[in-house]
Design goal:
By secondary structure, this protein is mostly beta strands. About 5% of the residues lie in helices and about 30% in strands.
């Protein structure tokens, strides 16, 4: 059988070949210049199809735990849960405590809930890969090394990028740095001593950033927490800008400089930047207790924690608004207010539960907030007496912020008995609003003086939660 013969190749016109080579070179150049697009993340829900009644739901029998990686269902609210860590999570530090970040405002999750980190009692950070579909978590890095994986050592608690799921930002001494997980490369973005030569920094502080990763905020100038005096803002394009709470002055490479309005002569406890980069919320030892700096100006607005407008309690910033546990009429009374007009506040929970009590505390987390600021704010609630007497006691909850229904969604009991600060659950919501990372000592059963990290899945919109056994409800 005759086989077909290949068609003879035609001689190529030299000018045509040069043209094709030029086009190929241009195409490669364009592809190199285009940054890798981050994977798409789901839009955070503005509502949950979860239990939102106000029935008192007492603790059922304590669920028995398996080791790290153990999955189970909250027996009261039906939410799926995961134990992240145990005493052997880091074998070279056997028995070490593992927790969610000390500040619930820290972005401990990446953009699409495929990465998160926990904090060790030594201050180190352990990053995890996470499968949001199966709720399985695994340590990053070499599982055969002594630590059984990657151990990060930023100077303070880092925050994941709000743009790229592969990036996390933190501090290393006086430097603001980024770390890319896919390449294991740390890059220095800015040295704070270039703007404030010789400025003192310390470990344990937390960095915050804007939704577009354009501006970063740090607080420095002291040797330990509560001794810092500089609110330090770094803009990738404009450079540095700072406010000194002791001297009452503002300086830096952009914006107006000079004396600012309002109180001075105090030190800083904590500072966070709003998601649009316009505001810095300062918590410190000044007469008011809380201050809002309009970063592009010399204006600093005070907000008293002990008198109207009552900016006390833990706070969390969005884009232009701030939420705080102001406790008017009850310990679980929250308000949302514009940072430009802190006296104008709207209650988030109405009516309040009765009888009134003031033994509740929380750590609000709003990493899921978008520019419309209609996403629920999430938190844990705990009591200093560890009792369950009212709705929301000892629970992981999210509160509606869009002003439509004033709902409180209930997801799980955290089962942490509060003995020390580190026993506080410090709920940390994911950027896509689907999960919460929290701390628990599981009623002091995970080891003497130990805590572990847990994850609870928040009921996705339009998904019905399992029915709650009536025997667990006290009316």
């Amino acid at each position: 059988m005759n086989q077909s013969q290949p068609t003879p190749a035609r001689a190529e016109d030299p000018s045509s070949r040069s043209h094709r080579l030029l086009l190929a070179w241009l195409l490669v150049s364009v592809l190199v210049l285009i940054p890798t697009r981050p994977s798409a993340a789901q839009s955070p829900p503005s509502t949950y199809n979860a239990i939102s009644d106000r029935n008192v739901r007492l603790y059922p029998s304590l669920p028995a735990l398996g080791s790290a990686g153990y999955q189970f269902t909250d027996p009261t609210f039906g939410s799926k849960m995961l134990r992240v860590s145990d005493a052997n999570t880091r074998p070279d530090r056997f028995g070490r405590q593992w927790r969610s970040p000390s500040s619930s405002e820290t972005a401990a999750w990446n953009t699409d809930s495929t990465k998160f980190y926990v904090v060790g009692e030594g201050g180190e950070q352990l990053p995890y890969n996470f499968n949001p579909a199966t709720m399985t978590a695994s340590r990053m890095g070499d599982p055969n090394n002594g630590s059984r994986g990657l151990v990060l050592a930023f100077s303070g608690e880092p925050s994941f990028s709000f743009v790229n799921p592969d990036l996390i930002y933190g501090t290393s001494g006086s430097q603001i740095v980024s770390y890319r997980f896919s390449t294991a490369i740390q890059t220095a973005l800015h040295d704070e001593q270039t703007c404030l030569p010789g400025v003192v920094t310390h470990s344990g502080r937390g960095i915050s950033l804007t939704r577009d990763d354009q501006r970063f905020l740090d607080y420095i100038g002291g040797g330990s927490q509560d001794s810092d005096v500089y609110v330090y803002v770094y803009d990738r394009t404009l450079g540095c800008r700072w406010l000194n709470t002791q001297t009452g002055r503002i300086g830096g490479q952009w914006g107006p400089t000079g004396a600012f309005t309002g109180d001075n002569g105090y030190s800083i406890h904590n500072v966070r930047i709003s998601k649009n980069g316009k505001w810095a919320r300062i918590t410190g030892g000044g007469p008011a207790g809380v201050y809002f700096w309009n970063i592009e100006s010399l204006n600093v607005v005070s907000c008293s924690v002990s008198a109207a407008p009552y900016c006390g309690g833990h706070l969390v910033t969005g884009f232009d608004t701030v939420i705080n546990q102001r406790q008017l009429g009850d310990g679980m009374e929250f308000a949302i207010r514009p940072m430009a007009n802190v006296n104008s506040a709207t209650a988030l929970i109405s009516p309040l539960v009765t009888p009134a009590q003031y033994v509740n505390d929380t750590h609000p987390s709003w990493n899921n907030v978008q520019s419309d600021e209609k996403q629920p704010v999430c938190m844990e609630t705990f009591r200093t007496d560890n009792l369950v007497q009212r709705a929301w006691d000892g629970e992981i909850i999210c509160i509606e912020t869009d002003g439509l229904g004033l709902l409180v969604w209930r997801f799980a009991h955290h089962r942490s008995q509060i003995v020390s600060f580190w026993d506080q659950p410090r709920a940390n919501v994911s950027q896509d609003g689907r999960f919460i990372l929290f701390t628990s000592n599981w009623e002091q059963t995970v080891g003497s003086g130990r805590q572990d990290a847990f994850i609870v899945r928040l009921a996705p919109a339009n998904i019905t939660q399992p029915a709650v056994p009536s025997s667990l409800t006290v009316h």
